[in-house]
Amino acid sequence: ITNGVAEIMVVLARSEEGTTDARGLSLFLVERDETVRIRRIEDKIGIHTSPTCEIEFDNTPAQLIGKRRFGLIRYAMGLMNGARLAVAAQALGIAEAAYREAHRYARERVQFGKPIRDIPAVSRMLLAMRGEIEAARALVYETSRWVDLAKAYDHYLSTDEGKKDKAAKKRQKQAQALADALTPLTKYYATEMGNRVCYLSMQVHGGVGYMREFNVERHYRDIRVTNIYEGTSQLQIVAAIGKLLGGTINELLDEWAAEEYGPELAPLKASLLEATEQFKQSALQLKEKETEVIDYYASDLTDMAVYVVNSWLLLRHARVSERKRDMARLYLTEYLPKVHAAARAIAAASMTPLDVRQSILAEPF
Ligand SMILES: Cc1cc2nc3c(=O)[nH]c(=O)nc-3n(C[C@H](O)[C@H](O)[C@H](O)COP(=O)(O)OP(=O)(O)OC[C@H]3O[C@@H](n4cnc5c(N)ncnc54)[C@H](O)[C@@H]3O)c2cc1C
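Above: the input record for the complex with flavin-adenine dinucleotide. Below: its predicted structure, written as tokens.
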């Protein structure tokens, strides 16, 4: 438990005897006293400034927060969605720090008579990092915007004026649905992106990157937890897939597609429209499959969604400056082919991997 040494804790505990599901959990406020024991502070590979504790409660008095049974489904879920966006932002920060280290090193390190950043294979790593970081930043901001809008509408709807406003009610529902769909996508993408960026940053450093005297090894260790805590990437996909299959983000994609991008961006827009259509088709195809096949290939559809959303965000930014235009050109050139590859995987989706798993996974080797 993060910061388990705190004086006051919010604890999710099973309050309903005999239950095993989420509805048997309630939320409690606990003040630390002699009945609370910190059994140990975990020995982690990273984020050493954050004490992660194993806590033992022994008949500890606790105060119920809100209603019984609502602990996880109502209160903790809301808390967790906020935390998921925060972890996405944390991953973005670590990724940027790792990129800055790689950028500096690639400029200073000379091999074969030139700075290594001028070698195509190295510039490719740097471009991959930069493109993914900018895409993740755009996604974090867009998701935060919908979260803020949903909350603002919620507040307005509780006022006398808002109670009569039917249009605002509809907008609140739309904003909430998008916030709920985009939050797991953002946590998934930003934290996986951060891991890829830190991996590449170490690679750009070559042998010295593996040594503790360079900062990149710390970023490499710190980033690793971001796609594990506050729900693993696999759980983010579980949270997102139903919404993607249900077309929750399609209206937003259509709104972006209807915007004006000008003649210079027309070829990029045309490629993106094609990829967007492919994403929608793949969702319809996957929806028709068996549940286990959907679960198995859910990551392909989630990747398609993220690449398409990011591409629209960067294309919209491309109208602002030449540098942003180049960034959109880079990102769409690199990632739209991945949308098509994932579409092919979904079109060919079958029970085969699931059918053979028993025989292949029966023994370690
Ligand atoms: C540093 C640190 C700090 C933490 N702080 C807190 C805290 O403050 N409070 C708190 O409550 N928790 C905290 N945690 C716990 C953390 O949230 C969980 O470890 C994390 O959510 C994963 O759950 P788990 O460890 O039970 O893994 P498991 O659920 O056992 O998962 C193991 C593997 O199975 C996969 N998996 C499991 N279920 C599914 C599924 N249905 N579909 C697809 N894949 C699945 C997972 O993706 C993972 O790959 C912390 C963990 C760490 C490492």
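Notes for the reader.
The chain is about 65% helix and 10% strand.
Residues 1-2, 44, 52, 225, 228-232, 234-235, 238 surround flavin-adenine dinucleotide (CB under 6 Å).
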